[in-house]
Design brief:
Blueprint lengths: L2 H39 L5 H6 L8 H9 L18 H4 L2 H20 L9 H10 L4 H28 L8 H23 L4 H14 L23 H6 L6 H32 L22
Length: 302
């Protein structure tokens, strides 16, 4: 009988400790909720906002100097760079190689435009003429084709490297989103270029790809909620991509415009933003900076 009061006291103490823990957790959640609410009220103070926009400097001598040093056109590289961040065993050089391939594709694609007509009658004949009659025409076309394949590979490797090294984390969240958009535009460039030779490979590749577009949510007549929005085979995203209901001359012309004009211009704008953000975020993210033995200074003895 004497043990019963002790057991009851132990249960009360245990219950009291449990309630204290619950109360502390509730206070923590409450404080977190208050912080989140304040963050919503002051959007410009959130980390997401800061990752996209930068705080405007005051008109002071030091601020003007910071404005010059942080200008991507006046100083392509930051004032200070972590030497380990630019090592090839860390970056793999995939970002620079991808941009180099884009320049090569722009140059070779411009030359190919001199010999190409985006019509059903002439397109494939132009490819044959280019390969068999134009001096170095086959080399030019193969440079463009294999450069496109390599660009797809380097973009994926670049994204893979950025993910493995955690370079998408604070404060580079916004630039990671820009990189994902650039990857999608790279894939679209490759896809739209498939149809331009107007051969069987391109015809069936675009046929399969645009048929998949019919199942796009909201925009495809076979996709989720598409019929509810009035989508039909004659007004959905597939119809817009092809300019009709089949892969014909309209599809070839639209693929040509998207591939040679629209997507390169849009992708170039995003590349400018991408490079600018790398510059504004302090350069390429890298491992913790290391110091050489010769750089280590002895501590001052007081």
């Amino acid at each position: 009988m004497a043990d019963e009061p002790r057991d009851q006291n132990a249960e009360k103490k245990g219950m009291t400790a449990f309630l204290e823990e619950v109360r502390e957790e509730v206070n923590v959640l409450k404080q977190k909720g208050i912080e989140d609410l304040n963050a919503l009220k002051a959007v410009e103070k959130t980390q997401l906002y800061k990752s996209i926009f930068r705080v405007k400097h005051d008109d002071k001598p030091r601020s003007r100097a910071l404005g010059v040093l942080s200008n991507v056109f006046l100083h392509l590289h930051p004032a200070k760079i972590n030497r380990d961040a630019v090592a090839y065993n860390f970056t793999w050089g995939m970002g620079g190689i991808t941009f180099y391939l884009f320049i090569v594709l722009t140059f070779t694609g411009t030359l190919l435009m001199f010999y190409y007509h985006p019509t059903k009658v002439q397109a494939f004949r132009d490819i044959l003429y280019l390969e068999h009659d134009v001096p170095f025409g086959k080399l030019l076309r193969n440079m463009h084709r294999w450069g496109a394949h390599l660009m797809i590979i380097t973009v994926w490797l670049h994204m893979f490297r950025v993910f493995l090294t955690g370079s998408y984390k604070k404060p580079r969240e916004f630039n990671w989103g820009v990189g994902v958009i650039l990857m999608l535009f790279t894939l679209l460039l490759s896809f739209t270029g498939y149809l331009l030779p107007d051969d069987q490979l391109g015809f069936w590749a675009v046929t399969v790809g645009t048929n998949m577009a019919r199942a796009t949510p909201l925009l495809g007549h076979e996709g989720p909620f598409g019929p509810l929005l009035g989508m039909t085979p004659y007004n959905d995203i597939r119809f817009g991509l092809l300019g009709g209901s089949i892969v014909d001359s309209n599809a070839l012309l639209r693929a040509y415009i998207w591939h040679c004009i629209a997507i390169p211009i849009i992708a170039s704008a995003f590349m400018v933003v991408h490079f600018w953000r790398i510059r504004k975020d302090g350069g390429i993210s890298g491992p913790a900076p290391m110091m050489l033995v010769s750089e280590i200074k002895e501590e001052r003895k007081i």
